[in-house]
Amino acid sequence: MAEKQPPTVVEGATTGDVEDEIPVAKSAEDRKAAAALSSLDAPREDDSAGLKDVDQEAVRKAMDRLTMAGGGATNGTATKKEEEKKVVKKVVKVDQADVALLIEELELSKIKATDLLKSHDGMVEDALRSFVAPVV
Amino acid sequence: MPVVLSGKEQSLFRTVVRNYEDKQYKKGIKAAEQILKKNPKHGDTLAMKALCMNSQGKTEEAFALAKVALTCDMKSHVCWHVYGLLWRAVKNFEEAIKAYKFALRLEPESVQIQRDLALLQVQMRDYQGYLVSRRAMLAARSTIRQSWTALAVAQHLSGDLAQAEGVLTSYEETLKNPPSKTDFENSEAVMYKNSLIAEQGDYQRALEHLESAGKHNLDRLAVFELRATYLTKLDRTEEATKAYRALIDRNSEYKTYYDGLIKAMGVAPTDHKAMIAVYDEYAEKYPRCDAARRLPLDFLEGDDFKAAADKYINRMLDKGVPSTFANLKHLYSSDFKKEVLPSLVQQYIDSGKSEKSEEPKRNGDTSKGASAAFYFLAQHYNYYLSRDLDKAMDFIDKAIELEPKSVDFHMTKARIWKHYGNTQKASEIMELARTLDTRDRHINTKAAKYQLRNNESEAALKTMGMFTRAETVGGPLADLHDMQCVWFLTEDGQSYARQGKTGLALKRFTSIFNIFDVWQEDQFDFHSFSLRKGQIRAYVDMIRWEDQLREHPFYSRAALSAIEVYIKIADKPLLNGSNGTAGLSEEDAAEQRKAAKKARKEAQKAEREALAKKNEPNKSTREGDNDPKKKDDDPEGIKLAATTEPMNDAMKFLTPLLQFSPKNIDVQLAGFEVFIRRKKYVLALKCLLAAAALDREHSKVHSQSIRFKLALDKELDTINPKTAEVIKSEFNLIPASVPLAKFNDEYLSKHKDCARRTLSGLTTRRLLSPDASPSVEKDIVDILKFPTVTSEEATEAYEVLKSWKSSEVDTFKSSATQTWPKATIFA
Description:
The complex is a heterodimer.
Chain A: H1 5-24, H2 31-41, H3 47-53, H4 56-70, H5 76-88, H6 96-106, H7 110-119, H8 124-132
Helix pairs in contact in A: 1-2, 6-7, 6-8
Chain B: H1 7-21, H2 25-38, H3 43-55, H4 59-72, H5 77-89, H6 93-106, H7 111-123, H8 127-140, H9 145-157, H10 161-174, H11 184-199, H12 203-212, H13 220-233, H14 237-250, H15 255-264, H16 272-285, H17 291-294, H18 296-299, H19 302-319, H20 324-328, H21 335-350, H22 353-356, H23 370-382, H24 389-402, H25 407-420, H26 423-436, H27 441-453, H28 457-465, H29 475-482, H30 486-498, H31 502-522, H32 524-533, H33 536-547, H34 553-579, H35 582-615, H36 638-641, H37 646-660, H38 665-677, H39 681-694, H40 699-715, H41 721-730, H42 740-750, H43 755-768, H44 773-782, H45 791-803, H46 809-819
């Protein structure tokens, strides 16, 4: 069962895109036609419902509000990454030898080992102690 | 520079894509090669060819080709997309995400790549990334409800409930007309929004929303239930009571409704009088209702209990309900109730009432009155809290005398034999029970299980084969794998482990591990499917369930068994070395290898034949079915058993156990065994401390503590000084001032009545001073004289003696056989 899965799964998850890949794949010149084709294709599933009941103007407004709230959809990746880094980066300096020790003894990934060490202000003994202590 | 194709070749390329889509991989590759003849460096074509090859099972070649494609045209999103798909197919989702992201950078407008990326992100639980993707997808298709719902789900999963609710509201506000009442998608979305409000803890608003938006919801039961819950939470007693009463009128057998009603009425859990009044009311209202009669037995005590139980038991036995005991055994945690129940049944028999009620026997309703009462008592004396196997056997024979054809009765008889420790007799009787109703799948699986317990692997498979699909390639075993029959694989594996067939045992346990992988993988399709169908609540439930998947006892049981086998493999070379039998085991290994080779060849042959057969009628269209990956190159598990790093292999099973079942003491104990062998002392200590926190006096916690101390004293120099310092200060299970031998003696005298702990203390004594072995072995034989010793404990002691090749084995055996004359396990 396990081994039988992959091909079917790939197909299942991507039939849509392979269909649509046809026009896209035609390289540069045909892109316009391709775009038209895929836009025909895209909202196909429930296009009718969408056009009938949805107030286009209201959708546009809702989208604007959302974009403001969400901090921009397109550059979201970049901002999010920066934010994450900021959170993690406390002003704790860690000794790489200690990190290596934690990786060796506790079989953690480097990232997790560093985080553990940082959350104990770089004190490797404290990090080990808290790791060993049983969770109640 | 990317090659540009001519018009004719472009259409050919489209054919390739279509062929791939239709799973005609051979044709696709042919067409691709035609293009490549003229344009050997066309990246997109190379990539598509790679994709087709991958689907044929040529993974490595596909990867190589995809890389060539990328070097030819590294700015092609098709090449990157294909590269992602290949990683995705081998389940390396992280690499796949990277490739998709790159493809998306080259072609930001591609809906398909964006969708594939999003699905992978949620599969990997990268909620931040998923949010970004869903935002982009919403921007691309903002008129579709699905896009909005999907974003809400993303926000919900990443923990932002208020935002999620806001997104759903935003969409609702864009609608010109309210959706029709029969719009299922809308109906589900409303309930989903309601659950979001409730999850924020704002029950007042949730109730209002439910009563306005949810008024005509299609899921009426959910609306009723939620309303009752919210009203209770808001202390609106009268309405809540009414709501629960309405629910009980819908379904008077559901315990939760009674609990809700009593809570809503404000009845204290100690106020039995008020509670019984509620139940009595419904017992009267619904004469056929069981719950209202059974539930009060949970809380009633003393004479009240006696009276209620008497009524209940009479009613059930008169009807001859086979599940009477199963329905009442939960009460056995109370010693009083454990005494009362069988005495009531005995009274029932003595009163002769059973004879009278035998009169109105109706069509086929056989096991009534007396036989039902005997059956109850047989189960009572077979139950572990009230076990007296001889009495149990007596009663079941009486019951069988009355109903010689009863499957249930014979099943219980087999179970009694099992508890006697006689697996053979148990298996025989269960097989007899099976023949009484050959079309019943339940008794069929029971018979197979008992055969496995008696190590009759082949017979068990044959029994199972009566209910598997006949046409499955590879026979019943393959079908049981396909059907993910975990219980069978577990029992089969454990049976092989008992027989010392390490390879096959590991094979089965690994199969179970893989089945859990498949279940993890299975959710993939639902990320899109559930949204399309609009079943969001069920989808969120599923995601949460998947996150805890390996908590399941199915997993821990198989994984612990696998680890046990691996530990045996790890310890074996040592044993062989000391006994000088290494040469013999090598011969064994050679023999095994030969057998494996033969088996492999046969399996391949069978596979080929089966495929050939399958292909003939519809050769060209069903290429996708000839999945070459399905071929198993190690059907006997020889490779698994031949591992040189058993402890590393065990880690695969152990890591999820420690993550998901940390409160299972067996898991922590197994973790210690693995880590101490791998010389990972901090990790071993963590497991040991966790086990001690769960049960300080556990027999294995004791022996492991001493073993840890011994290992520590021996290896202290090799441990990093910082680590050693921490270990010394944190290892508090044995006071440093007490010598180990004394510590062990204290443990022994403290638990001198417990067979299992004594066994642990004795084996530890032998470990501390090997000279004491003869006296230890004698002491182990004496464990049999303990008044409370069970046959399971005796088996453990027996195994210990056998593993030492002790001279006391025979003495132990004859003595144990006297204590348990019916058992086969000491034979």
